[in-house]
């Protein structure tokens, strides 16, 4: 477990009174990063990413259990912030997402500092998170293994709509119903492509309910053990 003091000017750290939500909780260019500083051993980071609804959380938990590595999941961090800070509307949810990624990568940096491998899971947008990966690489030079999750567009849309209509599906701070139109538009506009990280790439197509999760875990295990 890693503790982080939020001292930056991230959205969740510096908020005017008028922007504080009323709800309270009840429950750039693509580059490949690598080069390790001379003489420094490299820890490993498994990065689980893909579009919303692609099965990232499920496969990330499978990998956590198989590897016994700490899992830093964006939504878990975000929901903890909702529980502490409250929730409001879509704009607030986006601000908390930014803070969640900041915290995720700070925690990852602390783990890598002491050569602890970890798993990062989230809907990483390269334009927004490139600097985080660049910093990890510059400071700690981990070996990345990427698991890119995908599904057919009709399946992704159906999953997003199910979230939006099931109030119990996720934390209410995600405001899934209010986010639906924006996320559906993103499915059409955002190419389903992996992050430009160096290292092995494992693709997981979760379109079928019987998607071979065990095969994906086995592939990742082979990469981290070689």
Which structural class best describes the helix and strand composition? alpha/beta
What is the CATH class?
A: Alpha Beta
CATH topology: Rossmann fold
Biggest β-sheet description: 5 strands, parallel
Strand content: 5-15%
CATH superfamily: P-loop containing nucleotide triphosphate hydrolases
Q: What strand line-up does the widest sheet have?
A: 2-3-1-4-5
- The residue-averaged pLDDT reads 84
Count of helical regions: 7
Q: Judging from the principal axes of the Cα atoms, what is the shape?
A: globular
CATH architecture: 3-Layer(aba) Sandwich
Number of domains: 1
String of helices and strands:
EHEHHEHEHHEH
- Number of DSSP E strands: 5
Distance between the termini: 27 Å
Low-confidence stretches: 1-20, 24-37
Computed over alpha carbons, the radius of gyration is 18 Å
Q: Classify the helix fraction into a percent range.
A: 40-55%
Question: Helix and strand layout, with pairings?
Answer:
Blueprint: E1 44-50, H1 56-67, E2 71-73, H2 74-85, H3 90-113, E3 118-121, H4 126-140, E4 143-150, H5 153-165, H6 176-189, E5 201-205, H7 213-225
Parallel strand pairs: 1-3, 1-4, 2-3, 4-5
Helix pairs in contact: 1-7, 2-3, 3-4, 5-6
Question: Quick gist of this model?
Answer:
The chain is of the alpha/beta class and 226 residues long. It contains 7 helices and 5 strands.
Can you offer a commentary on this structure?
The protein is α/β, with parallel strands linked by helices. It has helices at about 55-65, 75-85, 90-115, 125-140, 155-165, 175-190, 215-225, and strands spanning about 45-50, 70-75, 120, 145-150, 200-205. Residues about 1-20 and about 25-35 have low confidence and may be disordered. It has a single domain (about 40-225), classed as P-loop containing nucleotide triphosphate hydrolases (Rossmann fold, 3-Layer(aba) Sandwich). α2 crosses α3 (about 90-115) and α3 runs parallel beside α4. The radius of gyration is 18 Å and the shape is globular. The protein is built from seven helices and five strands. About 45% of the residues lie in helices and about 10% in strands. It has a five-stranded parallel β-sheet, sandwiched between helices.
